[in-house]
Structure formats: C-alpha cells, structure tokens
Amino acid sequence: MAGRHLAGEDATGAATGSTGDLTRMSAAALAEALAAGTLTSVEVTQAHLDRIDAVEGSLHAFLHVAHDEALATARDVDARRAAGEPLHALAGVPIAVKDVVVTKGMPTTAGSRILEGWVPPYDATLVERLRAAGMPILGKTNMDEFAMGSSTEHSAYGNTHNPWDLDRIPGGSGGGSAAAVGGFEAPLAIGTDTGGSIRQPAAVTGTVGVKPTYGGVSRYGLIALASSLDQAGPVTRTVLDSALLHEVIGGHDRRDSTSLPEPVGPLVESALRGRTGDLTGVRVGVVTELNGEGYQPGVRARFDESLDVLRGAGAEIVEVSCPHFEYALAAYYLILPSEASSNLAKFDGMRFGLRVEPTDGPVTAERVMAATRGQGFGDEVKRRIILGTYALSAGYYDAYYGSAQKVRTLVQRDFTAAFERADVLVSPTAPTTAFRLGEKLDDPMAMYLNDVATIPANLAGVPGMSLPNGLSDDGLPVGFQILAPARADERLYRVGAALEALLEAQWGGPLLDRAPELPTSAAAATTTAAEGSVR
Amino acid sequence: MSASTHGGTAGSVLVDYDDAVRRYDPVIGIEVHVELGTATKMFDAAPTEFGADPNTQVTPVSLGLPGALPVLNRTAVESAIKIGLALNCQIAELCRFARKNYFYPDVPKNFQTSQYDEPIAFDGYLDVELADGTVVRVEIERAHMEEDAGKNTHVGGATGRIHGAEYSLVDYNRAGIPLVEIVTRPITGMGDRAPEVARAYVQTLRDIFRGLGVSEARMERGNVRADVNLSLRPTPDAPLGTRTETKNVNSFRSVERAVRYEISRQAGVLDAGGTVIQETRHWHEDTGVTTSGRVKSDAEDYRYFPEPDLVPVAPSRAWVEEIRATLPEAPVARRRRLQTEWGYADAEMRDVVNAGAIELIEATVAAGAAPAAARKWWMGELARTANTEGVELADLPVTPEQIGQLQGLVDSGRINDKLARQVLAGVLAGEGSPEEVVTARGLEVVSDDGALLAAVDDALAAQPDVADKIRGGNLGPVGAIIGAVMKATRGQADAARVRELVLERVGQG
Predict the structure, then answer these.
(1) Above 60 in pLDDT, residue A524?
(2) What is the DSSP string of A303-353?
(3) Where residue A511 sits, what CATH number does that domain have?
(4) How far is B306 from chain A (nearest CA, A)?
(5) Full DSSP string of A221-233
(6) Which residues of B touch A (CB under 8 A)?
(7) What would the DSSP string read from start to end of B345-391?
(8) Contact residues, chain A, for B301 at CB < 8 Å
(9) In B, which residues are within 8 Å of A121 by CB distance?
(10) In a domain, A15, yes or no
C-alpha cells in the first residue's frame, strides 16, 4: 500500500475545508498525513474523542466510548511509526464499531438489556484485524436491539439522532455507526447488514455503506441475527475509504465456515480507477421492481439524475426485471425471524449477561430463563422470536420456512439472469428519506418496508453499496444503491467512486458539507429534541 | 371399560420372562451414541481430554458465547465415514447439519447441532454373532454426526437427580465432543433371544469402534451409550406396539437386562388390559428396573432447520474410497474367511472364537504351522494350562511364533508329540525358544538306527518270552518291546521306526 497516492485532491480539499478540522478529513487523507508525519495518531484520535464529547449529547451514536484504549493504541502506533516500523495504510486512523461485534475487554450489548454489562473475553476476527492494522477503536455504536429495526429506535439504550435533523431517525439497525461517521465523530465505522442495516442508514445520513459479498468478511464474533444473511462491512464518508477499510477486514477466516476462501479483490485499486469518472463499456442495470411505487418523488428524481450522470460517464443503462423481488420482503421476514429465534436462544441468563430470578415461586433453570428473556428482550425482539418459532414449528415449516427458502432461490436466479445483462444493478437505496422519530414505531409493517430495496442482496448473498445521491425535496439525503455479482465487490467501488466523483463535482464538494452544524454542548440534545428540527 | 385401559405400569405386575416371550413378540430398536476420540471437539478447537477440571476444556464456541461460530472437525467426519462404511452404509454425497432447538442448561446454545434428515451414512447392516454361533443381521437405518451436551450435577438432593436438588452445576467440558449416533431399524423375529441380540449388537459395535480406532469405546466412561427401544405385539404379524425408550444403558450386561425387564414389564401392562405409554424410561443399574421419565408426545417440537453457520458436508467419492481401503475386515466376515481357510468345523470355530484364540491361531498359522496343528496347541495343551493357571490364553508366556517353531520341529521329525509337550513346558518355564529348550534339555529324537538297534536287541533279550511270541507271529505284544525301547531312549526314539526295527529283528519285517 506504501507509495500509493490515496487521498488526491478531493480528500485534501476536505482536509483544508471550511472547518479546518481533522475530524472532517477522509480516512484516506488522514492515512496520508499520518504516513507523511504531518499528523500523529494521538492528535487524530484525540480530535475525534473531543468531537464525540462535544456532539454525543445531540447524536447519541455511541453506547460506549473507549477514550483510554483508543489513545493507548494511538500512542503505540505513533511510537512504532517513529521507530520506522512498516505499518498498515490505515494505521493510526480511528474507527467506531457497531455494538453487535464483540470486542475483548470492551462492553458489548448488541443494543439489548439482556447483555448489559457483558464484557466479551474474545475479539471478533474483524476486530482482531482492525487491531492488527493499528486502528484505534473509539467505541461501540448504538443500534436496534440485536440489529432488528430500521431506525435504531429499538435500542434498549435510547435513540440515535440523524445528524441532518436531530428529530429524525438515522436509519437502522446501524444508525449509530452512520450517525457517528455522518456527524464526524469517526472517519470510519463498522456496520452489519442483514437486510440493509449498513446501506439504509448510509442512505439517510448521506454516508457510504457497503455490504460485502456474503462470506467476504468473517462473521466470527458478530452476534448473529440471521446467520445466512448477516454480513459486516464499512461505513464511511467516501467510496475510497470504504475500499480501504474493506481490504482490512475482508478475506478468509478459518473460524467462519461460510467465509470465502479467496482474498478480497483489488478494491482500493478499483475505487482509484473509478475516480477518473470513466465508465465506458460498463453496463448498468436498472431494476424495474426497485424503482416504482412507494418511492418518494425526490428519491426517484435524484436516482434518475444519477442515471444520466452514469450515462454521461460512458455507461450503458439497461432495464432489467427481477420479478421475484416482489416476494423478497415476505421471504426475508420468515427466514430472518426463524434463524433469529434459534440464534437468540443462548441468551438465557445461565452463562453471561443479564440473569433474572423470579421473585415468587421456585427458582428453576426454566423459570430463570423465562424471567431473564421476559425482562431482557425488547418488544421487537420478542415479536421476531415468536414469528420465527412459529415459522419453524412442525406442521408450519414447509409452508413458511420452506417456501421462503424457495423464494430465496428464485431471487438468486433473478440476480443471475440480471447479471447476464448488466455488470452492476442500481436502485434507490431506500424508498424514502429519514422519517421522524416515533413515526413508524407502532407500525412494524411500515418499518419493514424501508428495507424493500436492500433485502434482495442479502437473500442472494451479493454485495451492495449505498452512496450519497443528493438531497430530496425535503432537504434530506437520498442514497444510490449499486449491486454487483457475488465475489465481484470491486465493481461496486469502480462504479461508486465514479458516480461519487461526478456528483461531488456537480455539488462542489461532499454532500455532508451541506449538513447543518450540530449543537456542541451536552445539554443541546434535550433542547433540540423539545424544539424540533435544528435545520 | 375398566380404569386400567388408560393404564400404565401402576397396578400391573412383572410377567415371568419365559411366559412373556411365549405370548408376545418383542421388537427392539437400538440407538448407540459413540464419542469419537478426536483431539478437539466437533466444531471447536477446544481439547477433549477426559477427566479435566470442570469448564477448562472450553472456548467461546463450546460455551456458546455470543458471536462464536462452529467449524467442522475433519477427523470427526472421517471417523463417521469409517463407522458408516464398517456398518455397510451408503455415504451421503452431500449432507447438512441441522439445529435441534430446545432449552436446557447443559446445551450452551440452547440448540444442539446435529443431523436431521440428511445423515452422513444410511441404509446399512451389521452381522452380529451370538454365543452359539448364530449370526443375526441387524439393519442400520442411519449413522449421523452430532455434538454432545455438557454435564449437569445436581447438588443437595438425596438421589443426585434434579428433583430435590438445591442447585445444579454445569460442566461444559463435554459440550461439543463429537458423537456419532447409530440407529437400527426395528429388529424383529428374535423372540426370546431379543435381549441377547441387543447385547451382542452393542458389543459388536464396541469392537468395531475399537477396531477402526475411532474411539476408545470405554463403556465405563460413557464413550458408548445405548438407548433401547422396545415394544411388544401379540404376534409377529401384528402391527408394531407402542414403544418405550430406555435411555443411557451403559454396559453390555445392562443392555440385556434392560430389554429383559421391559419385556416383562410391558407384558404385565398388556396383561392387565392397560396400554404401554410412549415415554422415555430410566434404567437403574442397582435395582435392575426401569422407571418412567418424561412422556414423549407429539407436542415435543425441536424446530429442526438446516444449520446456517455450517456449509454442507460433501465427502468426495475418492476420499470415501480412500477411507474404505483402510478399513479392517468386519468381525463376522473375518471369522467366516478364516474358518474357510483353516477348514475348521463350525463347532471347532465357535470354540476358537469363544476362547479368544482367533488372533493367536492366525499368528501361529502365519508362523508356519498347519491350521489344525495350531488349533490343537491353543485349544488343547495351552487351553488346559491357561485354565489351570486361571489366565487368558493371550497372557500365557508363549508367543504364536514360538508355537509355530515348536510345530516346525515336530513336522521335521526332530521331536515327536510327546517330546514337543516337554519342549513347550520348557518354553512356558522361560527356558527360551523351542530350539533352545531342545538343545538344553537334549530332547531330540534318536534317529540313528545303530543306537536304536542296540536298544531293541537289549529289550528283546530282556523279555525273551515276549520275543518268542512275536517270532511265533503273534504281533500283539510288540508294543511292550517298543515301550521298553522308548523308555530306554527317554522317549527320544521315533516309535514307528522302533516298530520296524523290532519286526525286522524277529524276522517278521
């Protein structure tokens, strides 16, 4: 990686942008400055910790901030760099990690009461890789409980607020990671995406999120929601930064049986190539079924404009139909709860986390389990456990889980057929911009519909990216989704970086430059929440 | 309708076993779990050492910690394939694991990773030989891989059982140990021999596990555990009756006793007009009875579904054939082959098997002895010696190679049978190899006619009246002269040659 010029004009531009603040620099720019010795990791890490202290009262993106550990890592990296040790490209660049990823010695709750106070005795593989790369971990980010939700409102530890409008949701389940990156608390974050939990928050916060090919990033140490759908990936502000982070966390892991054997592709190279803005010969497929009814007019308008941009870059735009996507959401809401009902069985108060003993009657294992789960899980988690238990029950299995798996196969076939006609597929990431906090909390179906465009990729295991696609009529960010065939993640980076470069040229800079300044006192959050939007 | 129709055991009495099997046809089914002797667990790098301190042989995976994932142990799969092949099963070209969901504290994830409708091995059989030599073919439905659970210890109660206990301790060292579960098809038509068949089946499986080297298969450590299903029906033509499943019967003798007991108990229930309840029963080694455990009903729903954390197992045909090539011969097949090769009668072979002499004879034959001679030694002189000293044949201080040498000396005429017994005594006494004993004791046959003739002449001279009778054509007393010659040569003469010389000397040759 040494010698590769990563940041380029755009990122350095951001570094010297309106604020002159290092928290606004891209990870690539920070990496260059650290390598050049113009910045130290301690300076960079401290700046982000200061920013967290300043805006957490407004955003509540973090469940745990690891001041001391982050600075200790930063000092260590600075010392190693001073000693002339060869370091990873991202060494010294701090990162936030979604709280569904286990971190040794650092509390991990998955947004649930049932894991309150649990300190894992081991690191997830991807965390080991972050540590090995010398990346200070700033802390753990908020999320919907066990990653069940599209708004982060199902966290047991309070809402996270959208940096664009504190009255609005930051998306979910990875709203914490998206808000932390969008709110300049962290240059990079780790998210997980089971049905859109990286991409949808990225869309509604004006950030970049990538769900790699299933198996591309080890799941060892991810607290499982739905094993066959879960995938960890980067949450960043630029496409190049995602590529850099993806290369750190990706690649085979023998502790995850579903991990792909081959190394990650040339992602950074593809992003750098894409930034030239030339997409000559690239076939871009527009998925008919992901761009129609139910999509906000502003969302559709931005999407259509971006298609013109791609066409202008030399891409060939083709229309493709994926007829079975219509059933993807229904299948997803059978497969996910089924797997989740089993994955979440281990949370029983017997070995770790919350343990509730019944106050009346005998204290038997069964009654402790029931009491612990009754008090430890939130309503959305219980709803999905009940759904999944039902769907897997004898006599219902074939009709529900069995049928859902058949739909899954059909969705995969749709993708296979579509990728014969197109190199990448595109759609709006989410049908709407960020909705208001509380707006859909009592309507699970409305909440579930947020993921209609992101879910097919999880069912098929193909990679997807969401990148900023401008603002809708309501002034809120819209996301542009790119999907590629399995194991062809590099295509996301080439097309994504090209579109990003061309759009930013139109906008005169990153979309996030247009986000409002956040109130920077701890008291601000309660005030703004009471007053409404800060925009 | 009497109250007993919805009966159960209450009120009914045990029926005398012989009476029970005269009037009912028992059907058995056996599930055997064997713990594989792999160095690490089924899905996990945790070690499997027996007897370690509680909860020391664990990792995040075997504790079911959040985020941990299973990875399949290749050696365990290989062992499962070996077992499948030894049981004449088909080996699946592709099979998956499944999750068996149920809440219990000794199951760390609250599901057991097992195989459900896609076992690694299926449709096999095992030929089992009973004590009288009858061979029974037991059909194998399937053999599948799964992980063991942890172990609960209930503290504070009188019985060590959960009822009445103050608290329970869980040791997860055993959680995740690889198991293969072997399930038979219903074993029918055994009549009064059902208990014996059950025992012989489990015993044969144990021998196979050891022969394959897949498990130490120590019953007392619970390496091999049997669940015995039993039902009765009035006649062999009747549909199968309701079965009970007696769990964790952990010795060969107990397998036989448990089947016997259940036959008597169920006959009692049926005689009383009651119905057998489909349930799990516990075997009590001390009292020799089974007692009711939990009732199995259709309500028990494990919500099986394919384990999404593991990829399907697809053993290549080349690998399966490679494994097959390394398999030792099946016990019954090997006996049949050897019996044919050796030309033993059925009864002879059975005695050899029962005496545990099969390997000894095989090695003796390999050392050059004729099969009949090898059998004669091991089942004759040596069996008597072992019996007198109260030891096993294999524990006698003589090797099959030495018996082979001994027989070689006989075959070459250097010693006769009588001398050979003396040589063997010397070998057993630790005097060295047969050759060394012959030399040291001077036991070689005298084959020099000159020396023998002198002895013959002496004998004839010493018994003139006998010599006259022989000269007169009465050959009856010739034995007396031979005996005298043998005595004079301390048994080292070839008796046949002595006879020839005697007859020659008296003009009858």
Answers:
(1) no
(2) HHHHHHHHHHTTPEEEEE--GGGGGHHHHHHHHHHHHHHHHGGG-SSSSSS
(3) 3.90.1300.10
(4) 10
(5) TB--SSTTT--EE
(6) 60, 63-72, 99, 101, 103-105, 108-111, 168, 170, 298, 301, 303-305, 308-311
(7) -HHHHHHHHHTT-HHHHHHHHHTT--HHHHHHIIIIIHHHHHHHHT-
(8) 393-394
(9) 60, 65
(10) no
User: What is the rounded radius of gyration, in angstroms, for the C-alpha atoms of chain B?
Assistant: 32
Asked whether residue A398 is assigned to any structural domain, the reply reads no
Q: Which residue has the higher pLDDT, A361 or A250?
A: A250
> Chain B contacts of A371, Cβ < 8 Å?
none
* Res B477: pLDDT: 85
Å between B278 CA and nearest CA of chain A: 19
A322 falls within a domain: yes
Q: Is residue A401 part of a domain?
A: no
The pLDDT value given to residue B266 = 97
**Average per-residue pLDDT in chain B?**
90
For residue A228, give the chain B residue with the closest CA: B308
**How far is it, in rounded angstroms, from Cα B332 to Cα B317?**
26
Residue B260 has pLDDT above 80, yes or no: yes
* CA pair distance B267, B234, nearest whole angstrom: 10
Q: How far apart are CA A391 and CA A383, in angstroms?
A: 12
Q: What Å distances lie between residue A302 and A114, A307, B272, CA to CA? A: 42, 9, 82
**pLDDT class of B395 with cuts at 50, 70, 90:** confident
* Cα nearest neighbour of B304 on chain A: A392
Q: A242 to each of A71, A202, A500, how far by Cα in Å?
A: 23, 12, 13
Q: For residues A467 and A496, is the Cβ–Cβ distance under 8 A?
A: yes
DSSP B107-122: STTSEEEE-SS--SEE
From 1.10.10, 1.25.40, 1.20.1280, 2.60.40, which CATH number describes the B449-505 domain? 1.10.10
Confidence of residue A270 (pLDDT cuts 50, 70, 90): very high
Q: What is the ipTM of this complex?
A: 0.92
- pLDDT of A304 strictly over 80: yes
- Cβ distance A120 to B65 less than 8 Å, yes or no, reads yes
Distance between CA atoms of B257 and B288, rounded to whole angstroms?
Answer: 7
Asked whether B229 and B31 are in contact (CB, 8 A), the reply is yes
Burial of B226 (0-12, 13-18, 19+ CB in 10 A): buried
Tell me, yes or no, if A339 comes closer than 8 A to chain B by beta carbon. Answer: yes
**What is the pLDDT, as a whole number, of residue B209?**
94
Residues of B in contact with A351 (CB under 8 A): 63-65, 108
Q: Based on the structure, what is the number of domains in chain A? A: 1
- Tokens 């630790």 correspond to B430
State whether B67 and A101 contact (CB < 8 Å): yes
Domain hosting residue A479, numbered range: 26-326+408-531
What is the tens place of the pLDDT at every residue in A34-67? 999 999 999 999 999 999 999 999 999 999 999 9
Domain coordinates in residue numbering, chain B: 3-302, 329-441, 449-505
Task: Please compute Rg for chain A using Cα positions.
Answer: 22
